[in-house]
Write a structure and sequence with these properties.
- The complex is a heterodimer of chains A (about 400) and B (about 110).
- Chain A is mainly α and about 400 residues long.
- Chain A has one domain (about 50-410).
- Chain A contains 17 helices and no strands.
- In chain A, helix 5 (about 115-130) packs antiparallel against helix 7, helix 6 (about 130-140) runs antiparallel to helix 7 (about 145-175) and helix 7 packs across helix 13 (about 310-320).
- Chain A is globular, with a radius of gyration of 21 Å.
- Chain B has a domain at about 1-60.
- The termini of chain B are far apart.
- In chain B, about 10% of the residues are buried.
- Classes of the chains: A mainly alpha (about 400), B mainly alpha (about 110).
- The interface between A and B is large, with 40 and 34 residues.
């Protein structure tokens, strides 16, 4: 089913005279073009993944050095799952990258952070990452109708992820659903008795660990002038900084390299059903390694009416799944017991998003909830901008800070 | 006379029945044509929308390059929202003293 909506130009009236913005590789400044540029871009991606894994390893070691055996006491404030959730929301909203939050969390879990604290943080990353496309939609405020459509398309992601947390956080607290499933998956794919998959994963992990260890050791040694626990804290800060930088770097290069493939994928999904939308959302997000990018790119297209809310929605659900690949890559920073818990944290993010897609998108009644919420919010926000402002400030700043503040004070 | 009158009556009844049947048939044909036309219009609109979608996907590079938060626009949005909030407050503050709203209870400024 296709909703036919009024068409409008995605670009503004004067854009025809302006050169369209183009993706640029950082290596273009060296005069490279064609095949050599493509080769160097791919080498840049390999280097980026190398630095990402090293940085995650650094965070794990730094967390161990900073906490010794007292990781739980350091994160005691986050032992309340709602606070841990809000930490995830705030950190992701601040960095505008759920991949950064999930990679850092994988490193922290390998360094001793209890998985029970990490699970709500990973769920919070899902909520925090929806801020980016919501902020992008605010830029369309000048035209009321475009803003209504754009804000609905952005907040359908918010509603979906909020509903996913509302369903799965209580289930987690009551039955440890994600902890059990991810633990089983991690055991099956990294344990000593996990068969061929575990052997393959272990072999990859060992190679990656061997390759990344020299740089990790170098960075660790470079920060050793400080006494513990500050040495560990500096390693964590350095690791987070590296992850932020390298996620950005990978995003830039992958966009240049994968734009053609992503366009092919999107062309083939036009006019097909919602499952195809989910698949294309997941695939494009895996290609560019950023759900914020893929969900944000749909906002002007939804605002112009070229894509309807019902078409953007499955794409958004797919983007949630596609972005979980980063945490899986990050988990290769560790081997042995550390590797197993790191992989467990990565699987938590994967399974949370897969379950959310199956339960919410798979059940017709639940599937309508984010759509209706987004349509309602789009309508009221178009009529009164204060609703949009209250939503952005409330969901992404006010409520998280109030909850954390209350827990610290009480 | 009676026989010819009966014949006339019968033929008149048959004619009106034929006309009714013809009208029914015509109404059915018109309904079918309208339904088909609506279907063609829907398909045409769908096809146009898909063409527009393909055209936008052809500009994916530009859309990907623009898929970032424009902080200036976000700032402008919040400025406007703040202005609206101040305006609403001023309106709310001005309301009781507006004589036209409630002439009987209007308090002096």
């Amino acid at each position: 089913m296709t909703d036919v909506v009024p068409q409008a130009s995605v670009t503004t009236a004067n854009t025809s005279q302006v050169e369209p913005k183009r993706l640029r590789s950082p290596f273009e400044r060296f005069g490279l073009t064609g095949r050599p540029l493509r080769t160097v871009n791919w080498l840049g991606v390999v280097a980026g993944v190398y630095v990402l894994i090293t940085a995650v390893e650094l965070i794990g070691s730094g967390f161990k050095a900073a906490t010794g055996d007292t990781a739980e006491s350091l994160f005691a404030f986050a032992s309340n799952p709602f606070v841990a959730l809000m930490v995830g929301v705030l950190f992701t909203a601040a960095t505008q990258s759920s991949s950064t939050t999930t990679s850092v969390t994988v490193g922290l879990v390998a360094g001793g952070l209890p998985i029970q604290i990490a699970i709500p943080m990973l769920m919070g990353a899902n909520i925090g990452t929806t801020l980016t496309n919501t902020l992008v939609s605010l830029g369309m405020v000048r035209d009321r109708e475009s803003f209504r459509r754009a804000f609905s398309a952005a907040t359908v992601h918010d509603f979906f992820n909020l509903l996913a947390v509302a369903i799965f956080l209580p289930l987690e607290l009551a039955f440890g659903l994600l902890e059990r499933v991810s633990g089983w998956l991690a055991g099956a794919s990294s344990g000593a008795d996990g068969g061929i998959v575990a052997t393959l994963f272990a072999a990859i992990g060992t190679v990656v660990d061997t390759v990344t260890e020299p740089l990790a050791n170098l960075l660790e040694a470079g920060t050793s002038f400080l006494p513990d626990p500050w040495h560990g804290v500096l390693m964590i800060v350095l690791g987070i900084g590296l992850i932020l930088g390298v996620i950005n770097w990978l995003g830039r290069l992958l966009k240049v390299l994968m734009v053609g493939k992503a366009a092919q994928m999107l062309h083939s999904s036009v006019g097909r059903g919602p499952i195809s939308g989910v698949a294309s959302g997941a695939a494009v997000t895996m290609m560019v390694q950023s759900s914020s990018t893929t969900t944000s790119l749909m906002i002007p297209l939804a605002g112009s009416g070229t894509f309807s809310l019902k078409q953007v929605y499955p794409f958004t659900v797919g983007a949630n799944i596609g972005t979980t690949v980063t945490a899986l890559i990050a988990a290769f920073a560790f081997t042995g017991a550390e590797g197993e818990v790191a992989l467990q944290a990565a699987f938590v993010h994967v399974m949370f998003n897969v379950f959310a897609a199956l339960v919410i998108f798979g059940m017709p009644l639940l599937r309508q909830v984010p759509l209706r919420g987004a349509v309602w919010l789009g309508d009221v926000a178009a009529a009164n901008k204060l609703w949009a402002a209250a939503w952005v400030l409330g969901v992404f700043v006010g409520v998280p800070m109030a909850l954390i503040g209350l827990t610290v004070l009480l | 006379m009676t026989a010819s009158h009966d014949r006339r009556d019968r033929s008149s009844t048959e004619r009106s029945q034929d006309i009714a049947a013809l009208e029914q048939e015509l109404a059915r044909v018109v309904d079918e044509a309208e339904a088909r036309l609506a279907e063609v219009r829907r398909e045409l609109a769908e096809r146009r929308q898909q063409e527009a979608q393909h055209a936008e996907i052809d500009r994916l590079e530009e859309h990907l390059a623009n898929a970032t938060v424009q902080w200036r626009e976000v700032g402008e949005f919040f400025e406007e929202a703040l202005k609206q909030l101040r305006g609403d407050r001023e309106d709310a503050g001005a309301e009781p003293s507006t004589p036209s709203d409630d002439p009987g209870t209007g308090s002096p400024a």
